[in-house]
Amino acid sequence: MKLDATIPIRRALLSVSNKTGLVEFAKTLAAAKVEILSTGGTAHLLRDAGLDVTDVADVTGFPEIMGGRVKTLHPNIHGALLARRDVDDHVAAMAQQGILAIDLLVVNLYPFEDTFSQTNDYNLLIENIDIGGPAMLRAASKNHDFLTVLCDPADYGNVADAITTNGGTDLVLRRQLAAKCFARTAAYDSAISSWMATSLGQDLPSMTSLPGHKILDLRYGENPHQKAALYKGGKNRPGVTSALQIQGKPLSYNNINDTDAAFELVAEFDQPTIAIIKHANPCGVASANVLHRAWKNALAADPVSAFGGIVAMNQPLDIETANAVSSIFTEVVIAPDASDDAKTVMKTKPNLRLLITGGMPDGATSAIKIKSVAGGFLAQSRDSMMINGDDLRFVTKRKPTESEINDMLFAWKVTKHVKSNAIVFAKDSSTVGIGAGQMSRLDAAHIAVHKAGDIAAMQNWDQSRTIGSVAASDAFFPFADGLEVLIAAGATAVIQPGGSLKDNDVIAAADAAGIAMVFTGVRHFNH
User: Fold this and answer.
1) pLDDT tens column, 66-94
2) Helix or strand run (H / E) with residue 354
3) CATH 3.40.140.20 in the chain, residues?
4) Most buried of 188, 354, 437, 511, CB within 10 angstroms?
5) Domain with CATH 3.40.50.1380 in the chain
6) What is the C-alpha to C-alpha distance for residues 468 and 324, in angstroms, rounded to an integer?
7) Positive or negative, the Cα torsion across 108, 110, 112, 113?
8) pLDDT tens, position by position, 317-376
9) What is the DSSP letter of 425?
């Protein structure tokens, strides 16, 4: 037998959890005179459709036992899948044991990932771990020179066409399908191992792999010469990966990256909040008692940078906010929901992408962030640290007012989502100047002041909004010079982690200026 020959399909084993498209595919097999073997619910479905089916128990001579845990783990099945048809000893063993070859295996696995997304019930999750399915898929994939293996209903059409046209499959198709099955079983095992490690409190276990399946091919990556795709894996978390796109052009790599950053930022807040993001950095963030007021204040923080930005909100999109947002060029709007009237407004901007997540992510939910490096990857837990007023350490002679504390906590949450080094000015629960991604904290402070001053001049304000504002720094001030820039800009209170060798000098500078300063004891580097 030539290994690159078309392999005819005479006998097939079908055993699936996801029954989408199976009856139609099985009818193609029956029309081609293929003998069909099956198990349990799959066999019932096919018989109800009028198809002749042989029970696997009749092939093995052994009934399904232990609630279906054991049904295909038998030499008459695995021998039929693993035997090489070009090895005399294999062929002789099949003849001696009465094993008939299986030419096509169709298996998809117990829905562990779907179950995991819906429940934390340990015993239920254990029962949704497939054993026989992965074993058969791996056996058939290893032996793809001689048989065809399917794990995805999306591939039924290609195999059906090959059978109808050629009576079987060629080596290229068999190899492609085998590679997909190995990837499927690897992702399946990764999902299980990740869940078990997490259930044991092992966020970073000694061995790990990344579960995921591709849900979207992207036109390109950050730049047109880079390839890109979006994969989904792990426990469901409301956001860009799980969102329903209501309208608009296909999402790009940069759209997805920025939208994720925006939605994670607004998830920090309980009050109606809007964030406008450019290049994964916030250019305007505001909280207010109503959503459209939050939009107005967020836009005022940096209306130039907001052009072509990503808009995220933690409340359902209403018609008033929709009218305001759609008045400028916006790439993406993401919200937990949207009213019908708001959706109608958005339709007037057909290129704008509107994403509905169905809910907000839980800020306390554990998650792992991954970054590739040469030869491997870095992994860390998501920065879910939250603080409140009781966590603040007052270090200056003047204590902050209640209003200043509220604004400092607001700025502190925003700072966590600004690329380091980061400085954020805030006033009345709105950012008024942001310095992001600088090599020195002093430069970040100057840029935050510069941005606030430019915006004030552009909007004909009499003075920069940094006067009377508060400021936040994502990490400590190594010297007093960065703090002095904030003081000169008019900040009346500053929140920072503390912990510098020069803390006493920094505190002295604050006291000399009569401003309040608090330490959090926590930093928020974001690279």
Assistant:
1) 777 777 778 888 888 989 988 889 989 88
2) strand 353-356
3) 239-356, 390-519
4) 354
5) 7-199
6) 28
7) positive
8) 999 999 999 999 999 999 999 999 999 999 999 999 999 999 998 865 557 788 888 888
9) E
249, 279, 450, 502: the catalytic one is 279
DSSP3 helix / strand / coil % (the chain, rounded to 5): 40, 20, 40
DSSP label at residue 351: T
Do 281 and 258 meet the contact criterion of CB atoms below 8 Å apart?
Answer: no
DSSP-derived pairing of the beta strands 11-16 and 104-108: parallel
Cα separation, 506 vs 511, in Å, equals: 9
Torsion over CA: 190, 195, 197, 203 (sign):
positive
Instruction: Tell me whether residue 142 is one of the annotated catalytic residues.
Output: yes
State the burial class of residue 69 (Cβ atoms within 10 Å of its Cβ: 0-12, 13-18, 19+). exposed
For residues 400-416, give the mean pLDDT: 96
Q: Give CA–CA dist 437/452, Å, rounded.
A: 17
Distance, CA of 317 to CA of 325 (rounded, Å): 10
Q: Is 279 a catalytic residue?
A: yes
Residue 487 is inside which H or E element, if any?
helix 480-488
Q: Are 169 and 3 in contact (CB under 8 A)?
A: no
Active-site residue (options: 19, 74, 90, 142): 142
CB distance 242 to 255 below 8 Å? no
Architecture of domain 390-519 in this structure: 3-Layer(aba) Sandwich (3.40)
- Mapped onto helix, strand or coil, the DSSP state of residue 401 is coil
Q: Quick one: which of 106, 328, 334 has its CA closest to 241? A: 334
In what order do the strands lie in the sheet containing 493-496?
393-394, 516-519, 493-496, 470-473, 423-426, 431-435
Which of 16-25, 116-125, 251-260, 301-310 is the least confident region?
A: 116-125
Place 383 in a pLDDT band, splitting at 50, 70 and 90.
confident
Q: From the CB of residue 416, how many other CB atoms can be counted at a distance below 10 Å? A: 22
Determine the 3-state secondary structure of 268 from DSSP. Answer: coil
383: tokens are: 């920065």
The tokens describing 311, both together, are 């808009």
CATH superfamily of 7-199: Methylglyoxal synthase-like domain (3.40.50.1380)
Using CB atoms within 10 A of its CB, is residue 191 exposed (0-12), middle (13-18) or buried (19+)?
buried
Q: What percent of the chain has pLDDT over 70?
A: 96
Q: Which fold has domain 239-356?
A: Cytidine Deaminase; domain 2 (3.40.140)
Largest CA distance in the chain: 96
CA distance 411 to 400: 14
Give the predicted TM-score (pTM) of the model: 0.82
